[in-house]
Amino acid sequence: MYKHSDTIQLCGTTFYMDFNMEQFREVNNSWNTIPFDDLVFNGDSLVLFYDTINKNVFEGLAIGPRDDLQIIEIPIYLFKHVSGQPLEH
User: Fold this and answer.
1) Per-residue pLDDT tens for 13-22?
2) What is the spatial distance between Cα 40 and Cα 42, in angstroms, rounded to a whole number?
């Protein structure tokens, strides 16, 4: 069993923020997960290259405009453990 404290919307899909497993877990499809390790640290935010079709991390070449790729910036303050300590990066 995993513990989640919050949810987050990623391009219209709701994910739990699963701090025990350090991943996003889709509310409607618990097999669909995005590890926090796949986020890119960018100062006061974390960046996710999100595939809108697969509802997961974008894999492939991001050459030119793409309808299936969204670059999402997630504020770092959302990544605090229940203890209030920030996640390690």
Assistant:
1) 999 998 889 9
2) 6
